[in-house]
Amino acid sequence: MLTVAIVYHSGFGHTDILARAVAQGVGEAGGTPDLLRIAPEQTDFADAFDRIARADAVIFGSPTYMGTVSAPMKAFMDASARPYFAKAWKDKIAAAFTVSGSPSGDKLNTLTTLAIFAAQHGMLWIGTGQAPGNNDDLSAATEAENRLGSFLGAMGQAANDSPDVTPRTGDRATARSLGVRVARAAARWQAGGAQAA
Ligand SMILES: Cc1cc2nc3c(=O)[nH]c(=O)nc-3n(C[C@H](O)[C@H](O)[C@H](O)COP(=O)(O)O)c2cc1C
């Protein structure tokens, strides 16, 4: 069975909610999710690197802080120079999700940053593959899947409510679908590799 590592930081619990929705999607698609939450002051990532090396796919998650990834996420990224030089993550499937307070909040930059990070590692990027949610009916828009209309990765918006309230059901469904899509892509990639061997 294939494993999907979900590597993320969450300062106040909102990104954690999306990480769990992503994990649910991975499980529903027949994969095994491995949730790896980065701690605020973490500097030792050896265990995370070992688990990522064993994973078939990796989904990165970060809150959007000051228009980009959070500092703990960046610490993880900078520390990944060791697997980078060993090409340890090359040809693994990759994807990402983020949460911001504002509807935009400049969070596309967070996903772009993570996509470039994955590209530097030689990983294969998977977007949402989802059409934008129904924003014609504003009363229903907050519950629509991919309501924020992101193709590069899953986006959520949390405002200042508790993680019990936000990100709301539409954003959780978007994250779940990303987990399903990545697990299926990893399975196809694995099967194709076996055929090519
Ligand atoms: C230091 C800091 C910077 C933030 N910067 C932004 C930002 O640039 N854009 C935005 O929309 N929200 C911003 N926010 C709001 C967070 O993205 C939002 O509260 C998110 O839900 C936090 O996720 P978390 O609970 O997983 O930490 C910021 C929050 C903090 C604490």
TrEMBL record:
Its cofactor is FMN. Keywords: Flavoprotein, FMN. The keyword Flavoprotein applies. This is Flavodoxin family protein. Residues 4-156 form the Flavodoxin-like domain.
